[in-house]
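Sample intake sheet
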Amino acid sequence: MINELNKGVKKMDIWDIGLTKLSVALGVLFIITIWSAAMDWVHSVNPWYFLIAFVIVAIRPVYKFYLKK
């Protein structure tokens, strides 16, 4: 299964990857907009938790792109 996913990703260019990211962000905004419980949860969570989660999730891609040679 992973090999099939890797083959599919290799066919994508920078536009496809960017549009995939944008579609996920817009999908999350849509879900938060129509589901009031999700919106309440987002507003009740300390924003610093989202920043910490962002840094943890971004460490590996940033390391591989900029630092690993």
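Comment: The CA atoms of residues 23 and 40 lie 22 Å apart. DSSP finds four helices and no strands in the chain.
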